[in-house]
Specification:
alpha+beta, 4-stranded antiparallel β-sheet, 3-stranded antiparallel β-sheet, 5 helices, 7 strands, disordered C terminus, FP_C
Length: about 260
C-alpha cells in the first residue's frame, strides 16, 4: 500500500520540472522587464532630445525669418540709397550740356565753339556765362570727342538748350568761326549731360522708339520723354521701374522688352 510520503515524493518529482521552468520564466520575465525599462528610458531620453532639437529649430526658423526681414529692409534701403546717389549725380549735371559733332582744338577752343554755336542759335554768350568747357571721350570711336560745357546760370543753360532746335541740319561749316574745323561736315547735336545709368536707360527707350517707329524722344532736366506722334500721350522716365511700368501699360508692345540692369 502506497504511503502518504510516497505520494508527496511523486508529486514533488512531477512538480520539479515545472518549478524549474517557472523559475526560468520568472528570470526571463525579470530580464524582459529590465529591457523594457531600458528601452522606455531611452525612448524618453530620445523624445526629450527631439523636443529640445525642435525647440532649437523653431528658434532658428524665427531667427531666419527675422534675418530675411532685415535683409529685405537693408535691400530696400540700399536701393533707395542708390536712387538718391543717382538723383544727386544727375542733379550735379543740371547746369551742363554736351555738344557732339565738332572737334575741339586749341583754335578754336571749347569755349569759343560754345560761343559760336550760341551766336548761331540766338543765345549770345560771354566768357562769364561759361563756368568751364572741355572735350570728353565719345562713346563712338568714329566720332570726335564731345564737348561738355557747364554754365554759370541755369537760365542761360536752359535757353541754350531750348534753342538747340535751331541747329537742325546745321554743320560746323555753316557756323562762322567753325567752318575751318576738321569735322566741318558733321551734324551738330546738343544734349543734356546724363549719368551713365540714365544714358543706358535712354538707349533702351530709344531702341523701343526705333523698333516701333515712334517719332519723339528727348530729355529735359535729366528726365526722358517719349511720344509716338505729335498729338499722342507723353511718357516720362526717371528710372528702369518707369520703363517696366510703361511696358505693362502698353501690352501691345510686349513682343519687345528689355532687361538692362
Amino acid at each position: 500500500m502506497t504511503t502518504l510520503q510516497q505520494v508527496e515524493d511523486l508529486i514533488r518529482k512531477q512538480l520539479n520540472p515545472i518549478n524549474v521552468k517557472l523559475d526560468d520564466l520568472s528570470k526571463k520575465y525579470d530580464e524582459l522587464q529590465q529591457a523594457v525599462k531600458f528601452i522606455s528610458d531611452k525612448y524618453d531620453g530620445t523624445m526629450n532630445e527631439i523636443k529640445s532639437t525642435n525647440t532649437k529649430i523653431q528658434a532658428h526658423n524665427r531667427d531666419l525669418t527675422t534675418i530675411k526681414q532685415d535683409l529685405k529692409i537693408i535691400d530696400k534701403r540700399a536701393i533707395e540709397s542708390l536712387d538718391q546717389v543717382e538723383e544727386l549725380a544727375q542733379y550735379i549735371r543740371r547746369d551742363c550740356l554736351e555738344i557732339s559733332g565738332i572737334k575741339a582744338t586749341d583754335e578754336p577752343s571749347s569755349e569759343a565753339i560754345v560761343q559760336a554755336i550760341g551766336a548761331a542759335i540766338n543765345t549770345p554768350l560771354d566768357y562769364d556765362d561759361i563756368s568751364i568747357a572741355h572735350p570728353i571721350p565719345s562713346h563712338n570711336p568714329r566720332q570726335p570727342p564731345k564737348i561738355i560745357v557747364k554754365f554759370k546760370h541755369r537760365k542761360t543753360r536752359n535757353k541754350f538748350y531750348i534753342n538747340r532746335r535751331k541747329l537742325a541740319g546745321t554743320k560746323p561749316k555753316d557756323i562762322p568761326g567753325l567752318d575751318g574745323s576738321s569735322t566741318a561736315d558733321n551734324k551738330i547735336f546738343i544734349s543734356e549731360s546724363l549719368t551713365p545709368k540714365k544714358r543706358r536707360l535712354f538707349g533702351e527707350i530709344n531702341k523701343f522708339k526705333k523698333h516701333h517707329k515712334w517719332k519723339f524722344i528727348w530729355t529735359y532736366n535729366g528726365r526722358i520723354y517719349l511720344k509716338e506722334k505729335e498729338n499722342t500721350k507723353q511718357y516720362a522716365f526717371d528710372n528702369d521701374d518707369d520703363l517696366q511700368e510703361f511696358y505693362k501699360a502698353n501690352e501691345t508692345y510686349d513682343d519687345y522688352s528689355y532687361s538692362w540692369r
